[in-house]
Amino acid sequence: MDDMTDLDALVPPHEPAEDTLAFAGKAALSLVPVVGPLAAETLAHALETRQAERQHEFNVAIAQALTDAISRLDEAATIEDIVGSDEFIAAVTRAQRAAAETASHHKRQRLAAAVANGGSWAPFSASEREQFTRLVDEFDELHVWLLHYFADPTGWLQSRDLYAQHANLMMGGIDGPLGTALGVPQNVWRGPVGQAASDLDRTGLASIPLTTMMTPQGVFAPRTSEKGRRFLAFINEPDSLSANPPASL
Questions:
Q1: Are 152 and 223 in contact, with CB atoms under 8 Å apart?
Q2: Same domain (yes/no): 81, 146
Q3: pTM for this entry
Q4: Which helix (H) or strand (E) covers residue 148, if one does?
Q5: Given this model, what pLDDT does residue 171 score?
Q6: Which tens digit of pLDDT belongs to each residue from 123-153?
Q7: How many Å apart are CA 75 and CA 98, to the nearest integer?
Q8: Which residue range forms the structural domain that includes residue 171?
Q9: Of 55, 66, 128, whose CA–CA distance to 96 is shortest?
Q10: Rounded Cα gap, residues 182 and 150, in angstroms
Q11: For the chain, what is the radius of gyration of the CA atoms?
Q12: Where a domain ends, among 106, 138, 170?
């Protein structure tokens, strides 16, 4: 097989359950309200169909992420060696459980990237792979966005014409520009951001002092650590300047 083949093309297509038409006919012919056994049957069928569809989508995401990862490897690594390894099977099994438990499309994409970068073929140490894989499951959109924003606060704000309003700052904290970036009142973001910042500090991915007064140089200084940048690379995140804040907190 050509190593550059798009693996997602090899994932079998999702097919609805064979009893779909029979089930639909049964429901349509029934003259009784959808209650009792029929309601339970309807719900079970809907859940099974949607679960199968989501599983297929996740398999495609893994294939796409692995294709991308292999294309960036310096050393030759065959697709057959990777997908046939115990590391890959273990990573897929772990990620599938987490993917089934989240409604977030973005999180499933990150879980797929963790599978693609979760083995010895990837340019990450064993300890990084283990910790980063766990954090992909634990972290939400806010954690990831904070890593993006604090990789380059000045650049992020400038890219959205939000920097000028803070340019003449003499002394202050990082909470002012951060609130502008989030676009919501402080009483909305303070709690969730405080918890996420604590998580990032605990794991060594960033240091975000929300209550410290400092000069403008400190206010706009990058706060994402090198380890945090490697975590973003592990989950195949796009350029940090293009990362938008969470739609809700």
A1: no
A2: no
A3: 0.80
A4: helix 141-149
A5: 86
A6: 999 999 999 999 999 999 999 999 999 999 9
A7: 30
A8: 141-235
A9: 55
A10: 12
A11: 23
A12: 138
